[in-house]
Each structure stands twice: as C-alpha cells, then as structure tokens.
Design goal:
The structure holds 3 protein chains of 3 kinds. Chain A is mostly helical. Among the domains of chain A are: 38-294, Cytochrome Bc1 Complex, Chain C (Up-down Bundle); 445-507, no CATH class. Chain A has 19 helices and 10 strands. The two termini of chain A are 41 Å apart. Among the domains of chain B are: 35-119, Cytochrome c-like domain (Cytochrome Bc1 Complex, Chain D, domain 2, Orthogonal Bundle); 137-228, Cytochrome Bc1 Complex, Chain D, domain 2. Chain B contains 10 helices and 2 strands, in the order αααααααββααα. In chain B, β1 (159-160) and β2 form a beta hairpin. In chain B, α4 (77-86) crosses α8 (175-184) and α8 crosses α9 (199-215). The termini of chain B are far apart. The relative contact order of chain B is 0.10. Chain C is an alpha+beta fold. Chain C folds into 2 domains: 5-205, no CATH class; 228-353, Rieske [2Fe-2S] iron-sulphur domain (Rieske Iron-sulfur Protein, 3-layer Sandwich), CATH 2.102.10.10. Chain C is 33% helix and 11% strand. Chain C has helices at 2-8, 18-21, 39-43, 52-55, 74-104, 117-142, 160-177, 183-195, 201-205, 213-218, 374-380; strands at 149-152, 228-229, 246-251, 264-268, 288-292, 304-306, 311-313, 320-322, 328-331, 340-341, 343-345, 351-353. Classes of the chains: A mainly alpha, B mainly alpha, C alpha+beta. Chains A and C meet through α2, α5, α7, α8 and α9 of A and α1, α2, α4, α6 and β1 of C.
Chain lengths: 528, 255, 383
C-alpha cells in the first residue's frame, strides 16, 4: 500500500519535474529556514483572516443582492413585515434568517474583518518596535502600510453594504466628508454617490468595489508582501549564532509547515468561535436605513473609530470668505489627520534612517529598550491613537459610566496634547533604566544571594557572571559587544540555544555558566 | 412563528375579555354598574389621597401645589404618577440631576389609587383601558426608530445625553411604564400626546419595546450588550487577538 | 556594511551540503546574461563559516539543537501520539455535529430553538477546526524532528559590475530605439501616450448626474404652503403637540419621507421659553418651531431632544444646539445653527411651511452660500 502511494507520488513528481524542472525550487523552498518567535506569527493572523474573509465572503455573495431598489419586506423576520427597505437590506435579512448557515457566515465574515485589521495593527507594532522595517525591508513596510489603508477602505465598504440604519448613517457621514473638500467637494461627492445624497447608486457601486476591486488589490499586495519576506528572509532576534548573516530556525518542511498550517486552522477556529457565539452587527435590530432615523451610539467599526473620535474632539472651526465655505472642523480630523498619520507611518523608515544616518543592512531585530527614542515615539503614537479611539466611543463611555459627555470630550481634547509627550518622556526613561539594568548584568553579573563579609567588615553580595547565552542577547551596542567578546565568557556562545522571550531572557533563575561548555549540548537544560 | 401565535392568542384573550365585559354589562345593567364604578372610584381617590399625604406631600405640597422639593402635580394626570412611582423613581431619594430607577415602594393597587387621586386633581393623561402590549409589532418598530431610538438606542439599552443626563435602558420598564413615559414626558423626554401618536401607535411602540427587550432572541450568540460596534471592537481585541496571542505563545514555546 | 556582509557571506558547512542550506547555496536571482556575481561564484561553495555550528553540520541539516522531540522516549512519544490522535478525532466529531446541525436544526426565524442554530454551528465548526489545528501543532511540537537549522542570508544588493552592466544595457537599448535623437518621435510619443491619461476621464461623467450643485444642495422638498406630514403621512395640526412635545415631519410631496435633506423636527415649548428675534417673528407660532434635523456638521439626524433644557443633540458627534434660541451651536464640532423652517397655520388649522429652510440644510460645502434662499423669505414675509 505504502509503496503504491510512494510510487504514485514519485510518478506524479517526475511528471511535473519533466515539464517544470521544479525539483530544485521545491527542494530549496522546503529547506528554507524561518526563525521561531511567537511575535512573528502576528502577521500570519492577518493572512489567515484574509483567507477566511475570501471564503466566507464568497458564500455571502451567493445570496446578497447589492441593490438599493426599494422592496416591501415579506420575509421571515416578523418585526419588519411590511416595512419598505432596500433589496440589499432585505437580502441581508434573508441571509440571516432564511439561509442555512447564512448568519454564521455573516458573523464569521464580520469578525474576520475586525481581526484582520486588529492583527495588521498588532503586527505593525511588532515590526515597528523591533525595527524590522529597516534596510532592506522598507519596501515591505510600504506594502504593509498600503494594506492597512486598503483594509480600512475595504472594511468600511463592507460595513456599508447591508444598508441598515447604522451603515446608512456611516455613508451619510462619508458623503458629508467628501462634500467638505475645498473646491472639488461637491463634484467628488456627487461623482461617488451618483448625485445628491443618497444618490441611489452607492450600494451598487460599493458592491463590486468591495468584492472585486479592493480584495483583488489586497490579494496582490499580500502576495508581494509574502514574496518579499520569503526572498529577503525573515528577521530574527540576536542570540547565539544569530548574526546579521544567518537565519536560525525551523525548516519549512515539515515542522514549521505543520505549525503554520495548524495555526491557520486555529485562527479559523477562533473566528468560527466568535462567529458562532458572539453576535455581531445585528442589522435586524438596527432596522433598514431611513434618512430621518438614527440610533443613539452610532459608531463605525473599530478601525474607523479613531477618525470618528478625532471628528468628535475637533472644535467647530469654519471659515467663510467671499462666497465660499471652508470647513476645517470636518477637513482636519477626517482627511488631513489621517493623511498626516499614514504619511508619517509610511515615511518612518526613511526618516529614521536619515536622522540616525543609518545605511546599514539590518537583519537582527532591536529589543525595544535598546532604541529608546523609537520606542518612545511608538508609545507616544499609540497613546495619541488610543485617545482618538476612546473619543470615538465617548457616548458609550458616558452612557455606561454615567459621566458627562461634555466633560469626557474636554478631558480627551486636553489629553490628546498633554498625554503623548508625557508618555514619550516616561517611555524613554523607562527604556534607559532597563538598559542600565542590562549594563549592570553585563558588567557585574547576577546577584547570587551569597553575602560575603570583607576583612574590613563591609558586607557585599557576590555576583555571578552572566552565562554567555544571555550576555550575547544583551550585546546590542558596540560597547557591549566589546564587553562580551573580550570578557571572560565571550568565547563561542554560538552553539547554545537562544533563550526565548520578547522583553527579557526567559527562564526565571539564571544559573551560572557551567564550568565548561564543551559543545553546548549540556547547556540545553539550563535554558528552557 | 411564536410572535404570530402570541399575537393571535392576544386577540383571543381580548375577544374573550370583551365578551365577558359585554355579558356582565347586560347582566347587571348599565346604570347600576356605573354607580358602582363611581363609588369604587371615590374610594380609590380617598385611599390615594391618604397615600399621597403620607408619601408625597412633603415635596409636592398638601394640595399638590408643589414646593421647593417638587413640582406641582395638578393636571399632570394619572400617567405621570404611574410612570414615576411604578419605575421606582418616586419617591425621590435625594436631590439628583436625574431621578434614577429604584426599588418600587408601592404595589400596583396603591399606585392606581395614587394615580386616581392625582387624576382627580385637574385631570391629565391617563392610561387607556385594555392591554397595552398588543399593538402592531412592525409598525411599532418603525415608530420606535423614528421617535425613540435616537435617545434610547436601536435596542432600547439607553444612551448618553448632554451633561451626564441619559436616556435610561428600557429593559426594566413594564408596559405601563413605557406607555406612561410617552404620555407624560418625564424629565427631559419629549411628550407624545394622543394626537401625535395615537393610542394604537403607542401600544405598537410598547409592544415593540417589550419585544426587543424581553422576547427577541439573539440568534447570533451573546448580544455583547447590544451597544453596537464599540463592544464588538473590544471583543475583537480582548478575546480574538488575546486568544490568538496565547496560541502563538504556545506554538512558539519549545516543547 | 555591505562589504562586511560580503566578506562574511559564506555557504554553511561545506561537505557539499547545498541541499541543506537551501538558497544559501545559490542566489535567488537568476541573472541571465549577467556576469555571475552571486554569493556562490563570489566566494565559492564549501567555505565554512567560523562558527561552532559548522562543526555539527555533519547531519546535513546543520542542526544546532534538538527540537525537544520525544522520539527518544517511547512512552512519552506514545502519549503524545495519542493526544494528537484525540485532537484529530475531535475534528471528526465536530464535522459530524456540524453537518447534522446544518441540515436538521431549525434555522428560520421564529422556529422553535432557531436561535441556537448559529451558536451550535459555531461550536461544532470550532471543534473541527481547533481539533485539526491544535493536533497539527502538537504533532509538530512533540513528534516531528524540529532541529534548529542555520541558514546563511544571501547578498541582496547586486555586484557593482552587474549594476553597471545593467545600466549600460538599458542605456544602449534606449539609444537603439532612436528616441534620444529623434525629437519628433519622442515628442509625439509623449503627447500621444500622455493623452491616453485623459481617456478614462469621460467615464467619470457617467458616474454622477449633472446637477446644479448649489440649487440641488441648497433646496429641499419644502415649498410655501406644503403641509407638515408625520412619519405615517398625516398632516400635523395645531394642538397635536403638547408643550414638551416634538415630532419628525416631512414635506407634503410624494416620497417626502424618503427625501434625505427634507426631514424636519417640530418642537413645541412654552411661548415664553422661546427666544424669538424680530427678524424671525413670523417663523414660529405659539411656541411651535421647526428646524432641519440634518446636522450642519456631517448630516446625521439631530433628534435627541431634551424638552427641559431644549437641547438638540446629535448622536454621531455630539454637536448640541439650543432649540429655544434659533438652534445655536452650544457644543461640539458643528459650526452653524440648524436651519429653521418658517411655518404658519392654514385655514384648516394645519401647519404649513412658509417656504424652504432659511439656509441650505446639512453639512458645509465649498460653494455654499449662507443665505441662498433668503430673498424668497423677504418676499413672503408679508403674506
């Protein structure tokens, strides 16, 4: 049996290789090495969520009708019987209540969209704080920023399609934002919506954009993103043997592949868990869109929330000159701000390289503490973003905690300018003190707990030198490299396994280095 | 299915009740019954007056004229009493910006007596006879979204107003409280007269509110408070990303 | 830096072990006609990196560290295998449960227990996916040989000679086209190909109807004499609203409720609470006042009305307007008052509009003139 299978497989392989000469490529691919670290899997979440989005989205297109044609509802959901609505909304109700597996697919699709965006952001933070964007990976950083922006647009388009009360409110805001563009605003808005709001064509237009155009571009960019990771090879943290010129990790085949494949199913499983057990976007409760109706607590999905927040915090500045109206109260928070934020994000690798005059290749990742300015800038940006995000839900905060919405708004307005600089200073100082702790370890070793009394009567605690497999982790600056390579324990730490852990070498008690470390094998036990 | 059935059973009960009332009417004769009603009414008013003097007069005055602690109650009608007392808002515990819902102090009979008393003092809106929750569900939904959801949210869970005022959740409110709230317009809530929303329309809204707050199932799983995208985003990060990071840690850890 | 990489760029353990090293042994760039300058030809295979790892590379995998697999402990390996198998079988259970639920459980709205359909599907689907996923990971972690392997990075930048050759090639080819010399050809090509950029522009005109922006945006469905209809199409008359009442109203035109810019809000307060200036004296009647519900900020319906404070509050971005005082902005990002609709009462006691709103409704736009329809009001003020 096994031989028959083997025979068949080798026959097929020969057939293919005769035509494509693929063996060499496959051999090299299967032997490719990927470094192992939990944080390197965050981007995979986004990739797998996207696959789930394609699968679930395809199922939904089979039943969804992207049309704003008005119909009277006669479906199964009795509380809306006889109510006029768009065909898009009616078909979404049908998917939810009359199609087998329809509601769970809708919910998986929506959760996958939220997690797609969330994992992109978390992945972006990992790449940022570890400096993985540096030369030669700036292009991939740009692709990533492009994916982030496209993801937001794609998500907003999808959120708008069911034409329920919430999404209609969102579309109206989008139209109004377009109107505010100086000079061409009305033209742009009328062009996109097909006339004065609601225009009657926006659903019809968003539908192909959402299911064909943007996903196609995203798919292309993801392919390029992965191809670059593959070609340029993944970054890794410093460690024994882990230098700028090496990659240490698992080979794609079989172990890494099995883990990555398993992780796909685990991500899919988490999405089905949420899709089945956590109700999302209950459009039947929102009701069909009606321009004169609105619900308290109208919010966009979280990834647009920071723009809603900036809009809420903005003072009501509007200028009028000659016969024209200029609206910074809309323009600044909804267009200028994201333009600046995403622009800075895209340019960051180039700015940093320019300001630090760093033109070197970097395949080893930084520990965030070793780049205090970058880490502090990142923490500052996250603070800024979080305040905007909270402002986007300020009415829910006010409602749940019975606070004054006006005072929340004033507080957040002030916080938006006061907190980020404070966080910058605090983070930088924190990084520096962590560095000093590292220096302390390198210079003086680990406190052993043994107290010794000096002849003079003074008590001192004895320290044990840091074992080489840890000291190499800390050797992140030239001075430290000096220290570790010429120090007592700097000789050939490479053959020892790398201790793992994002922020600190893990493993609780760091035992003193054994008397001799012949080939590293004996050290394994002390590490993990 | 269930809701249709319950609506039909509602009609059946209503028909039965009407038939019984008709039967009783013919059996006992109209004038006599009217007189008995009148007698009952005056007893109720007197009982209500006693309750009022004990529980309410400190703030609202011995003759309902109002005072430092509370507004005049002349002409506010039975509905205002039912709303305020049956939702536990009155008697007020302390001077607060917005009366919160509390434990109800009086039973249904006492509330009706209080209401009868206040109604005798200058009239005002009162509850219609018959069931309050047998209105048209779909009509109620449409009217709810036009008139109510802007403050109380699409699912009646409430929402923020200006300066720490809020539209309360509708879930704890029974039919009488929902209906009388529309009639009496408590605090900052607008008032919906019978000319503006007819009795049937108010009943439809009451029906819809009771439906979404009590009967409506959540076929998609946990409703996440029905607050919309904010809790959804939180769950995406705390549960979704949280779980997946735990999984990556597990995968990344060496055996 | 580039140089140092090149210096240190060596194939891993020699031993003819290019297979183990993957693309360390060969550049990923197939350079075609270029001079071979990739790492292999530059340094040749078989050079070893001065690293202890090389000393262990005899197994072909340049293995550094055993991945903690259990093959050396049959008992624990057996247990791990059983755990993996249990997880794989969990998938089977999940799939069966999913199929049965999918086909047999009531799923239509209103059917008994239909609300459990999606959660059950979710649970079974999750079981089937987590089973296979967790099983695969556990398998890889416990039973597969997962050695840490060293691979060398290849030089990313091309050899300077290659760069020059490429640049030369491009330059030569460009010269062969004749473009640098033949200016007529070059200019006509630029013009012709450049004009292609205009080709998509006419399509844009198909997207929007040509409308007189100002007229379309500045005007709504309200006309002098149109009655105020409620959401069910009934005209609103004097006395329908009590003091403290408020109501959404629409113009008396076909499909009035669907007009996105015309919805208005009639509010009744005590006449003494209403601050009426001389120029708006005839716009409200007996404490009844009508404003546009479309927020002047981003167009959400402003319908959160607080009848005691007379605040109108927008649920989208919290702009607050004072309904008692010409809907002035009290808070939030909106810059302008809500437009007001002047009303009167017709012979039958119904409210009618005296014209359109006093200003264009809704959010601001470039060409917006604050008093587009004001002359009309003056003309009607006497009637």
């Amino acid at each position: 049996m096994a031989t028959a299978v083997e025979k068949g497989a080798s026959g097929a392989a020969v057939w293919v290789d005769d035509r494509l000469g693929s063996s060499n490529f496959i051999k090299r691919s299967l032997n490719k090495v990927f470094p192992d670290h939990w944080s390197f899997m965050l981007g995979e979440i986004a990739l797998y969520s996207f696959i789930v989005l394609l699968l679930s989205g395809t199922y939904l297109t089979l039943f969804f009708e992207g049309s704003s044609r008005e119909v009277i509802y006669h479906g199964a959901y009795t509380p809306l019987k006889g109510i006029p609505m768009s065909a898009a909304y009616e078909s979404t109700l049908r998917i939810s209540f009359e199609v087998r597996g329809g509601l769970i697919m809708r919910q998986i699709h929506h959760w996958a969209a939220l997690l797609f965006m969330a994992s992109i952001v978390v992945h972006l933070m990992r790449v940022f704080f570890t400096g993985a964007f540096r030369k030669p990976r700036e292009l991939n950083w740009l692709l990533g920023v492009g994916l982030l922006v496209l993801g937001i647009l794609e998500g907003f388009a999808g959120y708008s399609l069911p034409d329920d009360l919430l999404s209609g409110t969102g579309l109206r805001i989008a139209y109004s934002i377009a109107l505010s563009i100086p000079v061409i605003g009305t033209w742009a808005a009328f062009l996109v919506f097909g006339g004065e709001y609601p225009g009657g064509e926006i659903i019809e237009r968003l539908y192909p954009i959402h299911i064909l155009l943007v996903p196609g571009i995203i798919l292309g960019l993801i392919t390029a993103h992965l191809a670059l990771v593959w070609y340029q090879k993944h970054t890794q943290f410093a460690g024994p043997g882990r230098t700028e010129d090496t990659v240490i990790g698992s080979k794609v085949y079989p172990a890494y592949g099995a883990k990555a494949g398993g992780f796909f199913f685990l991500v899919f499983g988490v999405l089905t868990l949420l899709g089945g057990l956590a109700q999302i976007n209950p459009i039947w409760l929102y009701g069909p869109y009606d321009p004169s109706q609105v619900s308290a607590g109208s919010q966009p999905d979280w990834y647009v929330g920071f723009l809603d927040g900036s809009t809420r915090l903005m003072p009501n500045w509007e200028l009028r000159f000659w016969d024209y109206t200029f609206s910074p109260n809309v323009l600044l928070p909804t267009q200028v701000l994201p333009g600046i934020l995403f622009g800075l994000l895209a340019l960051y690798p180039f700015l940093e390289a320019k300001l630090t005059r760093d033109r070197a290749y970097h395949n080893l990742l930084d520990r965030p503490r070793d780049k205090p300015v970058r880490t502090a800038l990142g923490a500052m940006s996250i603070t800024f973003y979080l305040i905007l995000l909270i402002a986007g839900g300020n009415d829910i905060v006010a409602s749940i905690f019975h606070l004054s919405i006006n005072e929340i708004t004033y507080t957040l307005r002030a916080g938006l300018f006061i907190l980020p600089p404070l966080v910058y200073v605090a983070t930088k100082r924190f990084c520096l003190s962590l560095q000093r702790a590292d220096d302390e370890l390198l210079h003086h070793g680990i406190e052993s707990g043994t107290i010794r009394r000096l002849p003079s009567g003074e008590f001192v605690e004895e320290t044990v030198p840091l074992p080489p497999q840890y000291s190499v982790l800390l050797a992140t600056t030239p001075e430290r490299k000096e220290l570790t390579s010429h120090g007592a324990h700097g000789d050939h730490p490479a053959a020892t396994p790398a201790p793992r852990g994002f922020f600190r070498p893990r493993g609780g008690v760091i035992e003193p280095a054994p008397e001799k470390a012949p080939d590293g094998k004996e050290l394994e036990g002390t590490v993990d | 299915m269930t809701s249709t059935r319950s609506r039909f059973s509602g009609y059946a009960v209503l028909l039965l009740a009407l038939a019984m009332v008709g039967g009783l009417y013919t059996a006992f004769g109209a004038p006599k019954s009217k007189a008995a009603d009148g007698a009952n009414q005056s007893i109720a008013i007197e009982e209500g007056r006693q309750l009022y003097l004990q529980g309410c007069s400190t703030c609202h005055g011995l003759n309902n004229e109002g005072g430092a602690g509370g507004p005049t109650l002349i002409g506010v009608g039975a509905s205002a009493v039912i709303f305020q007392v049956e939702s536990g808002r009155m008697p007020l515990a302390a001077g607060v910006a917005q009366a919160p819902r509390k434990k109800v102090k009086y039973d249904r009979t006492q509330i009706d007596q209080l209401a009868a008393y206040i109604e005798s003092r200058g009239g005002g809106p009162t509850l219609p006879k018959g069931r309050l929750d047998d209105g048209d569900l779909a009509l109620g939904g449409d009217l709810f979204r036009t008139n109510c959801s802007s403050c109380h949210n699409f699912a009646g869970v409430g929402g923020a107003l200006t300066r720490s005022k809020y539209a309360p959740s509708l879930k704890p409110a029974d039919e009488r409280v929902i209906y009388t709230a529309m009639q009496s317009g408590p605090e900052n809530m607008p008032r919906f007269s019978d000319n503006q929303l007819t009795v049937d329309e108010k009943k439809a809204i009451t029906r819809y509110v009771r439906y979404i707050t009590h009967e409506a199932k959540d076929p998609g799983g946990a409703p996440l408070g029905r607050y919309g995208p904010v809790p959804e985003g939180l769950v995406a990060f705390l549960v979704g990303i949280g779980l997946l990071i735990v999984i990556t840690l597990w995968i990344g850890a060496r055996a | 830096m580039s140089d140092s990489i090149r210096d240190r760029l060596k194939a891993p353990a020699g031993h003819g072990e290019q297979a183990g090293g993957g693309d360390t042994s060969r550049s990923d760039v197939t350079s075609g006609d270029f001079v071979q300058t990739d790492s292999r030809s530059a340094h040749g295979p078989g050079q070893t990196i001065p690293s202890p790892s090389a000393t262990q590379a005899g197994d072909g995998g340049t293995g550094l560290v055993g991945g903690g697999h259990l093959s050396d402990d049959p008992k624990r390996a057996k247990r791990a295998e059983q755990a993996v198998a249990a997880l794989f079988l969990l998938s089977l259970v999940g799939v069966i449960g999913f199929c049965v639920t999918f086909a047999a459980w009531p799923y239509e709205f209103g059917e008994r227990y239909f609300e459990l359909y999606t959660p059950l599907l979710g649970i079974f689907m999750t079981l089937s996916l987590l089973g296979i996923g967790a099983g695969a990971v556990l398998w890889a972690k416990t039973l597969m040989v997962d050695e840490e392997t060293v691979q060398m990075r290849h030089q990313l930048s091309s050899d300077p000679k290659d760069r020059e050759a490429t640049a030369e090639l491009l330059k030569k080819g460009f010269e062969e086209t004749g473009l640098p010399r033949r200016t007529l050809l070059r200019n006509s090509l630029l013009l012709g190909a450049g004009s292609l950029a205009i080709l998509p522009v006419p399509f844009l005109f198909g997207f929007g109807r040509f409308q007189h922006k100002e007229r379309v945006l500045a005007k709504t469905g309200w006309k002098a004499g149109s009655r105020l209809l409620d959401e069910l199409g009934r005209p609103v008359k004097m006395g329908d609203l009590e003091i403290g009442g408020a109501k959404t109203v629409f113009p008396d035109v076909p499909g009035g409720r669907r007009l996105a810019d015309s919805a208005a809000f009639i509010i009744r307060m005590r006449p003494d609470e209403l601050k009426v200036k001389e120029d708006r004296k005839n716009w409200s009647i007996d404490g009844h006042i009508v404003y546009s519900v479309i927020c002047t900020h981003l167009g959400c319906p402003v319908k959160l009305y607080e009848q005691q404070t007379h605040h109108l509050f927008c649920p989208c971005h919290q702009s607050t307007f004072d309904a008692a005082d010409e809907a002035k902005v009290l808070f939030g990002p909106a810059a302008r008052n809500l437009p007001q609709l002047a009303i009167s009462v017709d012979a039958d006691g119904y409210f009618v509009a005296r014209g359109d709103f006093n200003e264009p409704v809704g959010p601001s736009y470039w060409e917006r003139k604050p008093h587009y329809s004001e002359p009309k009001y003056n003309a009607e003020a006497g009637s």
